[in-house]
Amino acid sequence: MDKYDNDNIFARILRGKIPATILCEDDMTLAFMDIMPRADGHCLVIPKAPSRNILDVKPQDIAAVMQTVQKISRAVMKGFDADGLTIQQFNEQAGGQMVFHLHVHVIPRFDGVRLGPHTGIMADTDLLEKNAEIIRAAL
Ligand code: 5GP
Description:
By secondary structure, the chain is of the alpha+beta class. Helix content is 30%, strand content 18%.
């Protein structure tokens, strides 16, 4: 496995070098909107400590991430009045990982609605902010 790259995009978000639509943060985690959402409300939770994925993350960091995932999940369910959620976490290129700083996807789901594809198209910033506000209000 390659080693952690300090210049990956989420490390740069953590250092404030590039913008993100932030939902909440604490000492150990940060939650923000996915810039290429597979559904309205698709967001990500990351540890602040560097780790590439599930294979090298410290137990206390993944525990903190999952606590924030639960908090965000409840807010997403409530804010979007969703029927369910898809939680995803990919590991290494073969596992579908594209950004090599551990992250967990939280995606609201609705009965009968298929999960959207990874389009690679960046969402409109105003729409991301509008959806973030729905989640923040439900936290
Ligand atoms: P994965 O590594 O789990 O396959 O996917 C990485 C996720 O990060 C994708 O859903 C992608 O849309 C998202 N992403 C990639 N670059 C950025 C970025 O610069 N900002 C944000 N907020 N999300 C990003």
